[in-house]
From TrEMBL:
InterPro entries: Nucleoside_phosphorylase_d, Nucleoside_phosphorylase_sf, Pur_Nuc_Pase_Ino/Guo-sp, Purine_phosphorylase. This is Purine nucleoside phosphorylase. It comes from the Bacteria. Residues 24-269 form the Nucleoside phosphorylase domain. Belongs to the PNP/MTAP phosphorylase family. The lineage of its organism: Bacteria, Pseudomonadati, Bacteroidota, Flavobacteriia, Flavobacteriales. Keywords: Glycosyltransferase, Transferase.
Amino acid sequence: MSSIKYIEEAVAYLQQRGFDKPEVGIILGTGLGKIIENVEIEVEVSYNHIPNFPTATVEFHKGKLIFGTLEGKKVVLMQGRFHVYEGYSLRDVTFPVRVMHLLGINYLLVSNASGAINGNFKKGEIMLIDDHINLQGDSPLAFRGVEKMGERFVDMSAPYNPEMNHKLEQIALKKNIKLHKGVYASVVGPQLETRAEYKYLKIIGADAVGMSTVPEVIVANHLGLSVSAVSILTDECDPDNLQPVNIEEIIAMAGKAEPDMITLFTNLIKQL
């Protein structure tokens, strides 16, 4: 069975359930599910009910696809995303992006929780992703037949839509939200980085590091979607003063910055 057929089966199932021509897709990172409270929900479907869909395994990812209205636009939200560190392939991780595209989205908004590499960035703040470094050692486009779904050699000179990013910066100014801008490095995980790795990430130009987002963004560019992504900075990765990681604190930090992220996303959606 071709992967196009897999995608079409998932889409047909969701359309039957009432997922009707969403304009915007939203992928929610760890600890960042509250934007759903702003959505007039029409349908929600557990991932494990959708044909050919991967299933979420990390306990704080609920694993639902949600369809509804947000700021007057039809949206589809992924509550819970997939990671390479859970044992998924990059094609699994990006399968939902292909499904949302076939459902009809033109725009993709992505959020993640990440560690601040840039010494000027503090935990609890937000970084707008301006560019990225793929350190996952693979590509979600490296498979036979990819050219049937779009251009094989995807241009990545501006993977994050400059116009949407500019709008987000304007919203941040207007709403008095501190919004950094920088480069996101995506690693496999699930272990956190060593001091030497943090030093290396700084040298190669990363401002923040996480374990997601880049595969989805690559595929969104492959499909011609306009993308913006933000990192919620949940910890500070200073190699000279590295503290043992506290996952509870990371989730709490995500929650602290989340209202600002919701303000950014909802106001951007209004303008799309």
